[in-house]
Amino acid sequence: MKCFIEGNEGDSSKQEFTEEQFFEQFAALEEGLALLQIQMRSMSEHAKRFGSMVGQMRRSICPATRSPK
After folding, report:
1. pLDDT of 7
2. What is the pTM of this model?
3. Cα–Cα distance between 68 and 26 in angstroms, integer?
4. Which of 17, 32, 43, 44 might form a disulfide with 21, Cβ 3.0–4.6 angstroms?
């Protein structure tokens, strides 16, 4: 199987891979993607918790005052 590879400097070359090498590379990419997804979910949870904590701090420092009627 021939694969077209473009390097960082814009040079391009063709490289020969066996089917086994191709599937190993693909599996490594899938594993990396799964780890990235886990990290993104974790970051999202941390952002939600931080936002909640900031809201609680704001309410405790500057409690809402009722406007006179």
Report:
1. 63
2. 0.56
3. 66
4. 17
Q: Which residues contact 16 (CB under 8 A, 6 or more apart)?
A: 1, 2, 3
Side chain identity, residue 66: R
Q: What is the pLDDT of residue 44?
A: 96
User: 4 CB contacts (<8 Å, ≥6 apart)?
Assistant: 12, 14
Tell me the torsion sign for CA atoms 54, 55, 59, 64. Answer: positive
CA 68 to CA 64: how far, in whole Å?
A: 13
Q: Are 1 and 16 in contact (CB under 8 A)?
A: yes
Degrees to nearest 5, angle at CA 60 with 54 and 62:
95
